[in-house]
Write a structure and sequence with these properties.
Mean pLDDT: 98
CATH topology: Rossmann fold
Number of domains: 1
Strand order of the largest sheet: 3-2-1-4-5-6-7
Structural class: alpha/beta
CATH superfamily: NAD(P)-binding Rossmann-like Domain
Strand content: 15-25%
Order of helices and strands: EHEHHEHEHEHEHHHE
Low-confidence stretches: none
Largest sheet: 7 strands, parallel
Distance between the termini: 49 Å
CATH class: Alpha Beta
Helix content: 40-55%
CATH architecture: 3-Layer(aba) Sandwich
Bound molecules: NADPH dihydro-nicotinamide-adenine-dinucleotide phosphate, 2-hydroxyethylsulfonic acid
Radius of gyration: 18 Å
Length: 252
């Protein structure tokens, strides 16, 4: 039985992926700050699936918390086959001269430093075992900048560069490193970006059909099925109506 560690598993892609893998016979380690959200989705699973889900309250920005949670894993969970570096956020959407410094720090600390802390903690075991798969959640925002995206764009461009660099470091140990770059997906993402402003969040997906979290979970499931000699290294996944970071067909 294989094990996946999912960061940001209390909502959106992380939750959908954790559920999908648990329902398909995997052991799942789920990390996020909102433990109660994770307890809630775990309770939806069948009893035997629930036993294979290990939850922990972890803020990926805190290296000590990451290391403590990893050291505290029950023996049955400590060999991680797949690491999904998913925890992340956009905070704010403002021109650079009006950006909020706290938003900037939060994005850099979570999207870049958090991903690095988790990777630094989990990857040595993969190297020792000579196998593993690390999937980083990037974004179309890490392929094309867009107006007012500045710091979020920079963090996801950082994930893009890191993914390539990590692959260069780890391929020789039999470890796959991949990136998924989604376009618009209706999760809590826009609520978080606009600090709980529901009208602004809804407007993002107005008169178009965004993807849903399950679409990304399905892609992750597909990626990990590839044979040992194949790595789907970098996948851009978009709603059909989205042609680029800034071009979206909206049907009035
Ligand atoms: P959600 O807001 O629904 O989920 C984000 C998850 O990240 C939550 O589980 C949240 O958990 C977790 N998270 C945030 N900060 C931390 C932290 N400091 N420590 C641990 N966990 C944290 O958004 P999505 O599912 O949409 O986003 C997931 C990833 O996908 C992000 O990296 C995002 O940038 C990226 N993405 C999203 C797109 C979209 O359109 N939705 C498109 C492209 C990329 P909690 O708050 O409980 O800690
Ligand atoms: C999320 C996609 O275009 O809203 O990473 O920034 S976008």
């Amino acid at each position: 039985m294989k094990t996946i560690l999912v960061t940001g598993a209390s909502s959106g892609f992380g939750k959908a992926t954790a559920l999908l893998f648990a329902q398909n016979g995997w052991k799942v380690i789920a990390w996020a700050r909102r433990l109660s959200n994770m307890e809630s989705w775990r309770s939806e699973l069948k009893e035997e699936e629930q036993k294979n889900v290990h939850l922990a309250e972890v803020d990926v920005r805190d290296l000590a918390q990451v290391e403590a949670a990893f050291s505290a894993l029950p023996k049955a969970f400590c060999h991680v086959d797949v690491l999904l570096n998913n925890a992340g956020l956009a905070a704010g959407k403002d021109p650079v001269h009006q950006g909020n410094l706290d938003d900037w720090e939060r994005m850099i600390d979570t999207n870049l430093k958090g991903l690095l802390y988790v990777t630094r903690t989990v990857s040595p075991g993969m190297v020792t075992r000579g196998t593993g798969h690390i999937i980083n959640i990037g974004s179309i925002a890490g392929k094309e900048p867009y107006p007012d995206g500045n710091v979020y764009n920079a963090t996801k461009f950082g994930v893009d560069g890191l993914t390539t660099g990590m692959r260069m470091d780890l391929a020789k140990y039999g470890i796959k490193v991949s990136q998924i770059c989604p376009g618009m997906v209706d999760t809590e993402f826009s609520q978080v970006r606009f600090h709980g402003d529901t009208d602004k969040a809804k407007a993002v997906y107005h008169q178009m059909t965004p993807m849903v979290a399950g679409d990304i979970a399905d892609l992750i499931w597909y990626m990990i099925q590839a044979p040992k000699h194949v790595n789907l290294a970098d996948v851009l996944i978009l709603p059909t109506e989205q042609a680029s970071a800034t071009i979206v067909t909206r049907k009035g």
